[in-house]
Amino acid sequence: MTTDPAQPQPSTSRRPSNIVLIGLMGSGKTTVGKLVAHSLGFSFIDTDEIIVKNAGKPIPDIFAAEGETGFRQHETAALQQLLNQLQQHAVIATGGGIVTRPENLPLLKQLGYVVWLYATPNTLHHRTAHSDDRPLLRNADPAGTLRNLLEARADLYKLASDLKITTDDLSAHDVAYGVSESVRVEFAKQSA
Ligand SMILES: Nc1ncnc2c1ncn2[C@@H]1O[C@H](COP(=O)(O)OP(=O)(O)OP(=O)(O)O)[C@@H](O)[C@H]1O
Ligand SMILES: O=C(O)C1=C[C@@H](O)[C@@H](O)[C@H](O)C1
Ligand SMILES: [Mg+2]
């Protein structure tokens, strides 16, 4: 388990007891998020699911009809919706591009403790190659796209997160265990 807490740790004393997962497509936010929620007895929320429900159509159709800009507007609205109905004890998986709008970064931290699931583009490519439901990877060079997205977003993930977990050599269950144990310690500190 490789974790990297060596980044500025904002005060979390008044933040809700939620876990927010960020990272590129295929980093495991949805898969790991469900496992963490199950193991901690938390509820599970996925911003991609909220967007699909609100828009009444799947993500590729939203991109086709409204472009990436339209999708990003739905994404910010989903975060605002979550903050307006703020829950405790939830695991919130996000979409891979949630950090690309600067106004989303403070919203993520207001929602909870933010964990960046990191993997190399090669790993991400292997994990996403079987599926066609990610519009940004529907092109001739999805591995190159993932490399470019990592380059463009890495600093944003770092800025937005309280903790980074490198997942390349870990099963989804191992990652979930690492997240659960890290947040147990964090939430115990907060309530001390
Ligand atoms: N640590 C892991 N080891 C092996 N496979 C994994 C791991 N984490 C996730 N996967 C697999 O990778 C695929 C993508 O995972 P998942 O959909 O959870 O990613 P995501 O971060 O939610 O992506 P997106 O940003 O597109 O929503 C799934 O098939 C999942 O089972
Ligand atoms: O990384 C991204 O920009 C995306 C990731 C997915 O979770 C979806 O939110 C959508 O396919 C866009
Ligand atoms: Mg997901």
Automatic annotation (TrEMBL):
PROSITE patterns: SHIKIMATE_KINASE (PS01128). Its cofactor is Mg(2+). It catalyses: shikimate + ATP = 3-phosphoshikimate + ADP + H(+). PANTHER family: SHIKIMATE KINASE, SHIKIMATE KINASE 1, CHLOROPLASTIC. Mg(2+) binds at residue 30. ATP binds at residues 26-31, 134. The keyword Membrane does not apply. Catalyzes the specific phosphorylation of the 3-hydroxyl group of shikimic acid using ATP as a cosubstrate. This is Shikimate kinase. Its main location: cytoplasm. Pathway: Metabolic intermediate biosynthesis; chorismate biosynthesis; chorismate from D-erythrose 4-phosphate and phosphoenolpyruvate: step 5/7. It comes from Phragmitibacter flavus. One of its GO terms (molecular function) is ATP binding. It comes from the Bacteria. Keywords: Amino-acid biosynthesis, Aromatic amino acid biosynthesis, ATP-binding, Cytoplasm, Kinase, Magnesium, Metal-binding, Nucleotide-binding, Transferase. Binds 1 Mg(2+) ion per subunit. Belongs to the shikimate kinase family. The gene is aroK. Pfam families: SKI. One of its GO terms (cellular component) is cytosol.
